Amino acid sequence: MMLYRRGWRKEPLFVLHDSYVPSTKISVVIPARNEEENIASCITSVLTQDYPPALLEVIVIDDHSNDDTAAIIRSFTDERVKYIDLAAHMGSEAKVVAFKKLALATGIAQSKGDLIVTTDADCTAGKNWLKEIAAKYELEQAVMVVAPVRFTSDNSIVQVFQQLDFMSMQGITAATLRLKLGNMCNGANLAFSKKAYEEVGGYKGIDHIASGDDYLLMMKLNRSFPGGIAYLKSANAIVSTPPQPGWMSFLNQRIRWASKSGKYDDNKMTGILAMVYLLNVLLFALFVYGIVHPVYLAWFSAALLVKTTVELVYLLPVANFFHCRRRLLLFPVLQPLHIVYIVLAGFLGFAGVYRWKDRTVK
To answer: Can you give the pTM of this predicted structure?
Structure first.
């Protein structure tokens, strides 16, 4: 955790110069399934970017929605918005596991931009989001730009818990890239060169895996273009998205994320994840053993105190960046719950069965 703190602080803030004028054609690709409550805000957020209109297109792929998502997308009359019905691009007997990857691939195939930016249908961003991404892409000639994501919160325990957990992962994302300890990213705020995407074959070879459209593509690009992945540490580039509304949907989301852990082609990241998981399993076991032999509860309490203190020291600068410093007051209280969640999500993720977007995925 101290190494992660060093990596986060070592990653410099990106400052966009006032004189910068974008020159990159961007295609924002948004897969959507049953997002009638969010899709209008998402598209509006993209269309109101401070970015040259001639260099921007928005491609929204409707993934078999059974609500008003399609109608809302079609209601936008701006010529930059393109609607794609995923069902129309699938054969009647098509057996698809990774619907999101198929939606993204379909949208990218019809895109005209040199830089593909992916986000989720429930995300919104500030007006300089795309300008910051384009500047980083042009300045560093990166094949992929990883950018920050922030969870909003309604102040309920379940959402505050997710906000803190996700903020921690965002800090680790930047730190691992800076220190070359592995690779992490999130498809809610990710950009990559279309040319590089095509050179590595897009999602081919990873389309049999239900999740991991972001990370697994990242690994393909990293193998073909070593050193070509950049992190954009800028508050203006943050994308905001709501957390899961309840504990069950949260657990299913994390199981989905964990289900791709066995697919990592990254020994450093695999080793770190294994170490983290083992630590939490041992802490959980120590607590359970302490119920039978109370003397071990003291050892558990001491270990929990050390874990909480070290993680707070790491999280403080990350929380400052995301303007969530006050949330850290609840961090010690939620630590035991975090241990249980890591153990449970990791175990169930290995099994690889979960429900997501009204689909049962194996």
So the answer is: 0.91
